[in-house]
């Protein structure tokens, strides 16, 4: 069995979730069983990735476990609970033997807010079945997560069309 | 109709082709018609993206148009011909009205070798149907291509498992 890798896509540029999605598609192409867990995105927006996942069918599962983006501290408890549920789901899935690749999308946010600790993440990584690949995404990954990962890419924003007043485009950004 | 965007994923890190693949999947999820053109990769390796494309079926087309990676100048003519054929195919596809998103994967290599000029690229971008999104990928994009793009992300390698002696993993990197 291949050694499972830990990949991390971080930085402020476009393409973190998207690169995770591309890796997931590639793995699915090879017949691997993929679970894509969205830690921040909630179910309100029918994104391209959700639509795609439903069309891909068996072998590609996407779950939106977040409570939407965090706007104010007044909602912290709601987000903490969603993050903890998502984390328990992630650990259970990683250890279940049902998946070859588990993506923890926008995971760095739950670390930043202290909803999950780096010690918990380290425990999950080290105790997982040997063949399971993991991908973490999100801005501002802490050094400890960089240290735990085998491969780390920083997506650096060189230029963004937002700054030209062009809004998010369906099919490209969501 | 949405204004077509020009996205560029460049830099030396992992995730350029992969982010293009993820964007393509997202677009396909929304029912957009996607063409993914591989300028360097040839048909010898059955990659995860090729397997996935064949399973996705209608609306997602992947073509491997390259002659494989360039190792020596003695093969330059073969690569030049492959690159020119790929370029003609790209222009034809972009203008055909058959695709909402066209990916020119690893395109910077054909610019670097002078097989296609930046003036040709500029002409294609400016004369394309208004709604067509384009994605270019590849290391070392020239400044002129950065200038032509709406959104540019540099994938910066922070850490890579190659350096730990772990070889490329099926389903993750190809």
UniProtKB/TrEMBL annotation, chains A, B:
Its EC number is 2.5.1.17. It is an enzyme of class 2 (transferase). The keyword Transferase applies. It comes from the Bacteria. Gene3D superfamilies: P-loop containing nucleotide triphosphate hydrolases. Pfam families: CobA_CobO_BtuR. SUPFAM superfamilies: P-loop containing nucleoside triphosphate hydrolases (SSF52540). GO terms for biological process: cobalamin biosynthetic process. One of its GO terms (molecular function) is ATP binding. Keywords: Transferase. The keyword Iron does not apply. This is Cob(I)alamin adenosyltransferase. It comes from Ammonifex degensii (strain DSM 10501 / KC4).
């Amino acid at each position: 069995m291949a050694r499972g890798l830990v990949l991390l896509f971080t930085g402020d540029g476009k393409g973190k979730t998207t690169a995770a999605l591309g890796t997931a598609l590639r793995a699915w192409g090879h017949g691997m069983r993929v679970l894509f867990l969205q830690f921040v995105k909630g179910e309100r927006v029918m994104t391209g990735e959700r639509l795609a996942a439903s069309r891909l069918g068996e072998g590609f599962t996407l779950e939106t476990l977040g409570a939407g983006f965090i706007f104010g501290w007044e909602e912290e408890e709601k987000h903490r609970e969603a993050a903890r549920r998502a984390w328990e789901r992630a650990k259970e899935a990683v250890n279940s033997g049902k998946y070859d690749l588990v993506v923890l999308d926008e995971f760095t946010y739950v670390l930043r807010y202290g909803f999950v600790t780096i010690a918990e993440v380290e425990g999950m990584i080290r105790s997982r079945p040997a063949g399971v690949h993991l991908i973490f995404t999100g801005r501002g990954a802490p050094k400890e997560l960089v240290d735990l990962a085998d491969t780390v890419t920083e997506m650096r924003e060189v230029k963004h069309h937002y700054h030209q007043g062009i809004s998010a485009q369906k099919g490209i950004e969501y």
